[in-house]
Amino acid sequence: MALSGSGLFTPAAAISNDELVAAFNEYVRRFNAANADAITAGTVAALTPSSTEFVLKASGIANRYVMNKDGILDPDIMCPQLPERSNDQISILAEMAVTAARDALKAADRKPEDIDGVLVAASNMQRAYPAMAIEVQEALGIDGFAFDMNVACSSATFGLQAAADMVAAGHARAILVCNPEICSGHLNFRDRDSHFIFGDVATAFIVEPAAKAAGANAWEIVATKLKTKFSNNIRNNFGFLNRAAPEGVGKPDKLFVQEGRKVFKEVVPMVAEMLVAHLAENNIAPAQLRRLWLHQANINMNELIARRVLGRDPVAGEAPNILAEYANTSSAGSVITFHKHSADMKAGDIGLLCSFGAGYSAGSVILRKIH
Q1: Does some domain include residue 286?
Q2: Structural domain of residue 333, as residue ranges?
Q3: Half-sphere exposure (CA, 13 Å, Cβ side) for 279?
Q4: Largest Cα span, the chain
Q5: Residues labelled catalytic
Q6: What is the mean pLDDT of each run of 10 residues along the chain (371 residues)?
């Protein structure tokens, strides 16, 4: 099987750390002023301002792209403003996915009539049904089947293995996998520890038999490995059952929440051990890796995982990251990194694509350059 072409959609609007911190600090100033008496009495805790230096050191993030900027930066709103569309219009996540998909189809030298299946594999689903994948399928004019799947930040690698398995079994000639993410929609921009983490984006890629891969940047899927382990340390409790428990509606746990230190301590060894084992199972020494395309969650996590996998500090360009520009884009992060940092490699070069996140979940894909 092969990953024969990738695509990327980047929103037009961007928010720098300076802009984001200025909005957050204004919210903090207003809150502390409005609650001054209670803060003095000790019944309400004062909020602490943030800084661009703190954000950069904690995450490696300097910028993020978003589908709506004004709402996020308004201290009275502090969330994206994305008006509902009529049922006759394409939904916003499907529209993002279609743009990335067309990019991937072009890269793979394929047309919609060459594709038999569509997967939308993402963390942030716009609705329960109809599946966004079917909407993408309709918009592109693809005949066949389509479905959504959600494995949080690992959705892209889980989707890749599912697509590869279906193509190998003869259920499809080729499958399009899309990863549209409006992470700003579930981010609590009033939380100092996490308001800077996420950005919006969409990626896509094509999976088909290696013998038929015609794209200039086609990669053989040498092996895949998936792992999950239950944890509450990254969670979002928003869902259709919220109306059945009205006392919880609007509470902070209906947005993204995490215990970052626990996540770091538990996920880094889990992922590093999985990647090392995956390479060993396929008789590939870490020294044979030309590149690591890791999930873009946090620069400190990425650097430590790369160091543990390689057994040394990575050299420049060996484990690239796109955090400074894109921030954490959930399922799309490792695919963006692959999309932007793979075309320079030569036939026969080996790379490792990895995602990890809530669940916990992790996916590893060993790739070998075909052309």
Answers
A1: yes
A2: 219-369
A3: 20
A4: 72
A5: 153
A6: 98 98 98 96 96 95 98 97 96 98 98 98 94 98 98 97 98 98 96 96 98 94 97 90 88 87 93 97 97 95 96 94 97 98 96 96 98 82
